[in-house]
Please model this.
Amino acid sequence: MNAAAFTRHIRRNLLAYIALLPMAIVVVFAYLGTMLWSVRLSFSSSRLLPKDDFVGFAQYTRLFETSRWVTSLENLAIIAFFFLLICFVLGTLLAIFIDQNVRAESLFRTVFLYPYAMSFVVAGLIWQWILNPDLGIQATMRDLGFPDFVLDWTVNPDKVLYAIILATVWHGSGLVMALILAGLRGIDSQIWSATRIDGIPSWRVYLSIVLPMLRPMIITSLVLLSISIVKMYDVVVAMTNGGPGTASEVPAKFIMDNLFERANIGLATAASTVLLITVLLIMVPVLYSQYFGKNGRAS
Amino acid sequence: MFILKNAVAASALALAVAMPGAANAQEPLDAEVIHWWTSGGESAAIGVFADAYNAQGGNWQDSAVAGGSAARSAAINRIIGGDPSTAALFNTSQQYHEIVEEGLLNDIDAVAMANNWDEILPAPIVDAVKIDGKYYAAPVNIHMPLWIWYSVDALNQAGIENPPETVDAFFAALDKLKEAGITPLALGGQRWQENSLFSAVLTNVGGGALWEAVYADKDEDAIHSPEFREVIETFIALKPYVDSASPGRNWNDTTAMLINDRAGFQVMGDWAKGEFKQAGEEIGVDYGCIPGLRPDSPYVLGGDVFVFPKTDDAEQIDAQRLLVEVMTDPETQVAFNNLKGSIPIRSDVDVSKLDACAQLGLEIMSDPSRQSPDASQMMAEYIYGSVQDVVTELWNTDMSVDEAVKRFDQALNG
Model:
């Protein structure tokens, strides 16, 4: 494109550029700008108020010497693995179940998707009450005549992560179901006819033909679930507040505590930068293969 | 325009200084106050300040923000944004020092000097609010966060005749309560409550000197001393006396265990009195308070202060001064602290209107050697946060004493 053509191009699209300008400003300043600024702050000695000095990687060194942060990362990894696995399997099975033209399908759909409509705080509180040894299932079972019944997940440091996973799976499975179901409905019925003529069992059709065709849905749901794990904060605060001890601490809570309660902006921004990099490391390859890969849409 | 404005301001100041009583004749002094006292007892308490300020011809504009850290953030954001409130509730922790250093506050030396604060306030409180020889905050109450509360009925049922006065007697009482099938120690398993319990063990087993050596001086020798190891061991020894439903329980639900006589003791600040009072319980009849388990146990002084954001507006400065006068006035102090559960900041007040525990507290506090600063005043928030992380891990895992000592050292000196 030579200079004249470029000018012509600009002139022709001037209105479009003007219209896009506010959006571009918002993206650059409100999203990229704040992100870069917090990365910048993670290299400063900021405590209560942002400072302009430069202390290198001191905050990062301190961060990884903090046992609570390391525990938080471990917890996040454990929760992420089980949450993604269970949510995905359960959500897909629910979708396949509903896809069998069951009676009262819309009722089931609503019931399974309903938890997702609830905020994490509400979901967390509900499960906190259900699992509370004094009020919930354990107390009820003991009152019913099983005095040795134990269900102490929320108060037992070794099992508290199960409780968190249970609540988040209950919350998130419906979303996977809805997305996969939408995909299943888009499968050409002739494929099913063809496989029936060939005498292939349904489970094999789902596994080898239908699910690979649903790749975009699967990736979308995994991406959405992953994001909800990384920013997981409210459900933990509502259920256990990180306890007992530090057994259910998560990185987002570490960041919030240091940012507000502990007036430690430097450490908090270092932690959020680590989290940002982790997310990018996971998401970029996934998104890349989704949009630019061999089988992607953009090819 | 500037000259005119300054002239008006100057004359207003002159008038206010010359005729303090004439404030009524003027426009009422608007004072917007940010605070986080939103629960029943707390909002009744701040109502005392509002009424007293309005009675002096002011116009109190209440700006309550739920949650301490949210309210403090709101106040700081307003200051940085150039639209500060007249006053804001605050804590005298590291955050306070930082905003003073940043020059975000007006000093209130004029009122402090006129009222002789150096003399009438307890030394730790003066140390907490005074920076570089100037007062930047008005203390309004003294909370002792480490009272040991007990249920009279529970102790009677367990056959304990006198409330314990030593650590050994305390453990003996815990054993008796356990035998009687009553939860000996009521604890809400939240980070800050576990930390209160640890502080109580540190002050009562270790004593005031160790308390300040470890937390204020962060002295390596003190942290590695046998005395501090004994503190950690005693803290660990308390674990079996707590019920299994403790983790995550709120402090007021925990106090309710004493009110219902389902538990013997609880370590909690004097704000717990509000819960007992609301349940219709009486000191000495239904519940009691123990200030410490050794004759020289330190009386830890915590409390709330008001800060006054920087402004050049003469009318706002007048309003700030009037607020300080009103809040620290002896009569307002008694009325306010009775509702808040704390004790007044000054000793020249009518003690007969205070309850028995508050009177006991004032009496102990009159001995300067027993006054001790609160943990939050001895170290920066981020250090205190790490210390609390160690305490909560120590309580909830099988951490060894050696490991605990190492972690405390790391948190305090890392």
